[in-house]
Design goal:
The complex is a heterodimer of chains A (115) and B (132). Chain A has 115 residues and is mostly helical. Chain A has four helices and no strands. Chain A starts with a helix and ends with a helix. In chain A, 44% of the residues are buried. Classes of the chains: A mainly alpha (115), B mainly alpha (132).
């Protein structure tokens, strides 16, 4: 495996892990009450742990690769999150969400190309 | 379940996204941008060595900012759709690019400028669509 492919794979895995982090944060957020104690729930802890895990993959990935390729890979996480939102929280795929997301991905690709 | 064609004539679903949540995520992106700049500095010395990681000051500062980011993000997610709020985080790219122009002295170029403009438009469309 070439170093770039290895970096891309690390960043890709980081994106998938991070998107599950977002799912668990949402699950935890839905369980919050007015008390501060409600922040100590297993879902939020899992979300934070997944985020930390994704950060390790991300850091190892960007260490050895060009950001122009890796930046757009990171933003793939938005696609996974949209899928999980639909799957786990029954959120609608509206036209605005899809159009907005496509523009965001295109924009990130451009930022990467300029880097 | 609704199909896309019938959505507009039905009452809006209950968990639409509150304006306050959008504002919170917006603030998160500023924290996230600062954290990313610090991570970029810290990643030069990063390895899977616990002592090296624990004494990496930019990395630790970045993590602390990410802690604040996560807390605010959770508060935002209480009153909003994940699919609508999460992509707003992409504004972080806009701030990182602008900060890299001003702080790191990177040269602006057409690709980057078009990219950040397109991201802003994308977030704008997303925000208009999901807002209550």
């Amino acid at each position: 495996m070439t170093p770039l492919m290895k970096s891309m794979l690390l960043v890709f895995i980081g994106g998938v892990v991070g998107s599950f982090g977002a799912v668990f944060l949402k699950l935890g957020a839905d369980k919050l009450s007015k008390s501060i104690r409600s922040f100590l729930n297993i879902r939020l802890a899992a979300g934070v742990a997944l985020y930390l895990g994704s950060t390790v993959f991300y850091l190892l990935g960007i260490k050895g690769g060009q950001l122009s390729v890796l930046y757009p890979m990171v933003s793939l996480g938005y696609i996974w999150t949209l899928l999980w939102s639909r799957l786990f929280f029954k959120e609608a795929f509206s036209r605005q969400k899809l159009l907005g997301l496509c523009l965001i991905l295109a924009g990130v690709v451009f930022v990467g190309l300029g880097g | 379940m609704t199909t896309p064609g019938t959505e507009s004539i039905q009452p809006p679903p209950a968990p639409a996204t509150a304006r306050r949540s959008i504002a919170l995520v917006f603030f998160c992106t500023l924290l996230g941008a600062a954290a990313q700049i610090l991570f970029k500095i810290g990643s030069a010395h990063f390895s899977l060595n616990l002592i090296a990681a624990a004494t990496n000051v930019p990395l630790i500062c970045g993590l602390v900012l990410y802690g604040g980011f996560t807390l605010l993000m959770v508060l935002a997610l209480r009153e909003g759709e994940l699919s609508m709020l999460y992509p707003i985080i992409s504004l972080t790219y806009v701030w990182v690019t602008l900060l890299s122009y001003t702080l790191l002295g990177e040269k602006p170029n057409l690709f980057k400028n078009v990219g950040i403009a397109v991201i802003v438009i994308g977030v704008g469309i997303l925000g208009r669509g999901g807002r209550k």
